[in-house]
Write a structure and sequence with these properties.
It is built from 9 helices and 18 strands. It is of the alpha+beta class.
């Protein structure tokens, strides 16, 4: 059955449309909000869809919000507006399963009366609704307690003439063409091997967005961006049972997506290679994290150096700045201005200019991940990370994935992780896993139903190698990670 759906969604908090998962995690729009249904027959203007190049209309609305806050007596204010439109097509077993057209509008306003803060949000872009949203934020601020650390980022940190980072590549693909691409991926997977007996489907996703942020410092900037994804997930079966696996390709520029047939073939091969999986007995061994799961390991490091965890003393890396926290060959740095990359941003969720910087050099911790609020709590300056990291990159080594297997010799190759047994306070790490047992530098057989455990502090210091096979499908970019020794719990 085919479903056609048009939605107007209200996010849980205003998310800047920069195609990252939580760009305003600790930004200005975290408190109470008001929501109104979207109405495009504006009382004073009409706002189009992403790609119609009317960022000026969004700038006018942000400017209106900031001006209204000033007239209402706010000592400072900020506002952000985002608009996104997309197409998601899913096919399964050769038939169209869902077609979804989405349209999301979001306006967020934060006002300050001294150090008292109020926030409100809306999906209604009419001028009258913008004013009402500001008024709601002001009412909240008048009744909230003073917080000496609350406020806008410092004016001298605002981005000036932000560069064009080549983020907007609208994909002029029709629904019929998207269906054809998804079917091509799934068909390639199903036709590859008779052991591919079922499918969870293939999908094509096209999303474009516009984003504008402004504040009472006079900052007012915005951009358009795109994110396109092609994915496939299939099920393989033989006498040993069933296994499933997937593959996906993501890029801002659709021309940089992998061919649909290659996505399908990769998904099929990954599922087939897992057939005949065994359990392991409990042991200690080296562990090689495949690049796409290694991003999650580095994500735990980012969590440990985020402002909220640091000022709450809720991280095993509290007070470790200037100390060795990784193997001495490891460098981790941000590259926020990579053209066309999925994690690129010229400014963060508070308008602060982003800059390339090292977080780890020669294994030594050189920086944290802070917005202005957490920076003030810690008595330091913001790092320009309101909303998250920007192309956080683990500098790759020279060895290929195959060379890493050879160097490991005997150990566990992890291709899938399950569960969230992570304690950022202590660094304790325990996760369900699946992958392959490696002997003599070559894959011996697939394994499943195992748990890998250790402590993140030991794991980071025990990184023997970073692979050259960098996965660039997100805001964290890393190759495969070879970790010296971990506990593997099995049967």
């Amino acid at each position: 059955m085919t479903r056609h759906r048009v939605t107007d969604a209200v996010p849980h908090a205003l998310v800047a449309v920069r195609q990252q998962e939580s760009r305003l995690e600790s930004g200005p729009f975290r408190q109470a909000r008001t929501s109104r249904p979207t109405c495009m027959n504006d009382d004073t203007r009409s706002i189009g869809h992403p790609g119609e190049h009317d960022l000026d209309s969004l700038r006018e609305l942000v400017a209106l919000a900031v001006d209204t806050a000033r007239k209402s007596g706010a000592s400072a204010s900020e506002a952000a507006i985002s608009r996104a439109a997309g197409l998601d097509v899913n096919v399964r077993l050769g038939e169209v399963e869902t077609i979804e057209h989405t349209r999301d509008n979001s306006l967020g306003v934060t006002v300050y009366f001294g150090n008292s803060k109020g926030s409100a949000s809306s999906t209604d872009f009419r001028a009258s609704a913008v004013r009402e949203t500001v008024e709601a934020a002001c009412r909240i601020a008048r009744h909230t307690a003073q917080d000496e650390f609350a406020g806008l980022a410092d004016p001298e940190r605002m981005a000036v003439d932000p560069p064009d980072l080549d983020l907007f590549h609208p994909w002029a693909i029709t629904t019929e063409e998207a269906i054809s691409l998804a079917l091509e991926a799934e068909t390639a997977a199903r036709d590859h091997d008779s052991r591919i007996t079922n499918s969870d489907g293939a999908s094509v996703s096209r999303h474009d967005g516009d984003y504008v942020y402004g504040n009472s410092h006079g900052f007012l900037e915005g951009h358009s961006s795109s994110r396109n994804i092609l994915s496939c997930l299939v099920i393989a079966e033989d006498s040993s049972g069933m296994q499933r696996d997937y593959w996906s390709s993501a890029a801002r520029d659709p021309a940089r997506l992998e061919p649909a047939s290659r996505v399908g073939l990769t998904a099929a091969r990954r599922a087939i290679r897992r057939l005949g999986a065994r359990k392991l007995d409990t042991r200690e061994a080296s562990v090689l994290y495949e690049a796409d799961v290694a991003r999650g390991v580095i994500g735990h490091f980012v969590s440990a150096i985020r402002g909220p965890n640091l000022y709450r003393k809720a991280s095993f890396l509290v007070d470790r700045l200037g100390e060795r926290v990784m193997a001495d060959h490891v460098r981790i740095h941000e590259q926020p201005h990579l053209r066309g990359a999925l994690g690129s941003a010229a400014f963060d969720g508070e308008g602060v200019a982003t800059t390339p910087r090292d977080l780890v050099t020669d294994g030594v911790l050189r920086g944290h991940v802070l917005d202005s609020y957490s920076a003030r709590k810690l008595g330091v300056s913001t790092t320009g990370n309101a909303g998250g990291v920007h192309n956080l990159t683990v500098a790759p080594g020279s060895k290929s994935f195959e060379a890493l297997l050879a160097e490991m010799g005997t150990g566990l190759l992890v291709t899938e992780l399950m569960g969230m047994g992570i304690n950022i306070v202590t660094g304790d790490y325990s996760r369900g896993a699946a992958g392959f047992w490696v002997e003599g530098g070559e894959v011996a057989y697939p394994v499943e139903e195992i748990t890998i455990a250790g402590n993140l502090a030991d794991m980071f210091v025990g990184i023997r190698e970073v692979g050259a096979d960098v996965d660039t499908r997100g805001a964290i970019r890393t190759g495969s990670l070879l970790v010296e020794r971990m506990t593997i719990a099995g049967s």
